Amino acid sequence: MSQPSLWQLFINYIKIGLQGWGGPVAQIQVIHEDAVEKKKWIDNDRFKDAYAVCGMLPGPEAAELCMYVGYHKRGVLGGIIAGLGFMLPNFIMITLLAWVYFQYAATSNIAQMLLFGVKPAMVAIVAFSLYRLSHKFGVLTNRQLLFITILMIVLSFVTTVDLILLLLAMGFIYMLVNKLTEKNKVKKDNSTLHGFAVEPVLLASSVGFASSLSANVSWLFLKIGALSFGGAYTVLALLQFEAVDYYGWLTTQQYIDGLAINELTPGPLIMVAAFVGFAAHGFWGATLATFFIFLPAFLFVLLGAPYFESLRKNVGIKLYLAGVSAAVVGLTANFLIRLSIEVFQDWASPIITLVSLFLLIKMKPPLWSVFLFGLIFGSGFMYLVTLM
Predict the structure, then answer these.
(1) Which of 4, 137, 212, 240 could make an SS bond with 8 (beta carbons 3.0 to 4.6 A apart)?
(2) Quick one: CA dihedral 105, 106, 108, 112, positive or negative?
(3) Which residues contact 236 (CB under 8 A, 6 or more apart)?
(4) Closest CA to 4 of 43, 49, 35, 45
(5) What is the pLDDT of residues 285-294, one digit of tens each?
(6) Is residue 22 part of a domain?
(7) pLDDT tens digit string along 363-378?
(8) Region of residue 368 (phi > 0: left; psi between -120 and 50: alpha; otherwise: beta)
(9) Angle at 111 between CA 367 and CA 383, to 5 degrees
(10) Is residue 52, in this structure, part of any structural domain at all?
(11) Structural domains counted in the chain
């Protein structure tokens, strides 16, 4: 295996970031082809093990895999360089587009015409992702996990408890439900919880922040980044509750526009953080939001890489994370309902969503093509409306 320089790592993952169309599955495929098949920087078995662990960790899996490959080749500095290279193109694009949007597009009829069909396409993709998450986390085949999912949906609508705390609590509730169920069995395997330990996330460095806007942005995105189990769609749901409903940095409509803009650019969906950060505090807010939402992923991967194998084998941690993951499905369902209510304000939007969903299920196209369909169909519809 060749030994790349830090500069080669950086340039390589900038190129990978520019190819990051179509969501995490497509991004991971590109990363695998590059690192395993083309450059042979890492063997396939090690890549698969890293992928499995990154799926357990909070944060964007694709970015974490880039960090891991960089760490594997050049240590901690290599991991940092690879992660920065992957996220840099998307950060620049989203930040510039956020500036254009809030300067001109938010009140531009042309921009709203272009974004009209992208929003219902987003609803279809979230619905499709919800279905895939349900299968991935075993919610549809495990009654205990299904109970956690339904409980999370209900509580996220009726309670005022911080959703991040609620998400963490669901892991312990699932452990309790699992333990009670195990007691009803004739033969109980006491090894299930052996060695269980959930280390608290070290966020104490942020406690001393003053209650300024910059501090609020930093603290919010650090929390979300550290607890974004399930990847990008957990982030989207939490940002809806925190940035829109609680802080009021932007309206629901602006947030949905930001999601649409982010989906039309290559890179991780979690980079919508830059758009929200810009809405809160301009270019500085976008920088802070991006830094803090990715910081936990860097720490988890770069500090935890030597322990990936033991993490995979720890039954207790897997049990806790299974409960959190089921709660993520419930949180995503809540986000889908709220998003649908906001988008379905006319008869054309549900049609675009249904056609997009049909394409995703039957034809399995890349996600960018579904957004392109929504862009063309929606723009055509809006143009016809203006002529009538």
Answers:
(1) 4
(2) positive
(3) 126, 259, 269, 272, 335
(4) 35
(5) 999 999 999 9
(6) no
(7) 888 777 888 888 888 8
(8) alpha
(9) 90
(10) no
(11) 1
